[in-house]
Amino acid sequence: MAKEKEHMNLAFIGHVDHGKSTLVGHLLLQSGAIAEQQLSDGENKFRFVMDKLTEERERGVTIDLAHARFDTPKYEFTIVDCPGHRDFVKNMITGASQADAAVLVVAIDDGIMPQTKEHAFLARTLGINQLIIAVNKMDLVKYDEAKFNELKEEIGNLIKTVAYKPDDIHFIPLSAFEGDNITKPSENTPWYKGPSLVKALDEFTAPEKPTDLPLRVPIQDVYSITGVGTVPVGRVETGVMKKADNVIFEPAGKAGEVKSIEMHHEMLDSAEPGDNVGFNVRGVGKNDIRRGDVAGHTTNPPSVAKEFTAQIVVLQHPGVITVGYTPVFHCHTAQVACTFLELQKKLDPATGQVKEENPDFLKTGDAAFVVVKPTKPMVIEKIKDIPHMGRFAIRDMGQTVAAGMCIDMQKAK
């Protein structure tokens, strides 16, 4: 049997209506992951591949994270189709925090929109180090090179502010609808000398699998499956889970032995980082655990924080953040309201040096060390121990107000 291809999780991010779903649909079609028959007719045919939910079709908006697989010559990708719609940024956070790399889609007719910025910031803060910029809808401007170069420069300046290097990133002019530059160079852009999207994806480097770190599997959903029982589903972030391992779910505190593990409808003896798996644990029922719980080995259980110290960046806040503020923290698959107990230090975002001790408030653009207390038990890990479990985004009033990472914690007893 040939060596299995390395696996990568790929997020598609960017503003609503900039063509992400269409691009994903066309990519799956051209790479042979779906057949022509699976497409519906009409101008939305590609989107519907990902937008499976009826509600989404009726509203014409991508609501939840859809997972789809496709292969390039080098990798097997799982696409996390990240909604660009305002209400659904919280799903986008869950998606991006699972991604190894991202394609930022920007439509040439609209250019940079508020969410283009927000998603670029989030991708960076959530630790996505590899990026491709897809400049979409080139057919609407008759494949004009000058317009492409103008937008390329603007996006380059934007992503520089969050420490991406434009020179190391492919900016690809394409049309998701017409199929230009998706799998092969397009005759419509003879001036573009770079790779097609699929070729550029193969230039990504696969992340090292953190198999030597403790096991952590944040739970996305819990199902009851006839003949199997309760099946939690989640992505192995770190460590290795094997059949017959003893695992514990925190903060639920429920433990048991792993009876079976499956991925893409195949039974596995073990699962490693990057695997999206369903698994059954002896003695753990559907009502014992829920989304946001994290599974780990009983010998090294997930950390439940009573309170924790975090380094945060305020991305956008209409007012100010003070002690007592209690927004929702999105960390791995958990969403927990946390109260700011202390604002310890304000930092210079550019240098990381301390600017002010014990500031009275924080506003947009500030970076700081803060102490927060979850309003109910929540699993988080110190960024230096298990980086994959230490990042979070803070949301309030329908927007992402800040993002950050856990640097220290007081564990719950």
How would you describe what is shown here?
- This protein is 15% helix and 36% strand.
- It has 413 residues and is an alpha+beta fold.
- The protein folds into 3 domains: 6-201, Rossmann fold, CATH 3.40.50; 217-297, Elongation Factor Tu (Ef-tu), domain 3; 304-411, Translation factors (Elongation Factor Tu (Ef-tu), domain 3, Beta Barrel), CATH 2.40.30.10.
- It has a 6-stranded mixed sheet, sandwiched between helices. A 6-stranded antiparallel beta barrel has the order 7-8-14-11-10-15.
- A hairpin with a 3-residue loop joins strand 10 and strand 11.
- The model is unreliable at 35-43, 48-67 and 81-96 (pLDDT under 50).
Give a brief outline of the structure:
It is built from 7 helices and 23 strands. The chain has helices at residues 20-30, 47-50, 54-59, 89-96, 114-125, 145-160, 197-201, and strands at 6-14, 66-71, 75-81, 101-107, 130-136, 170-173, 217-225, 229-235, 241-242, 246-250, 254-263, 266-268, 270-271, 276-281, 294-297, 304-314, 328-331, 334-347, 354-357, 367-374, 378-379, 391-396, 399-411.
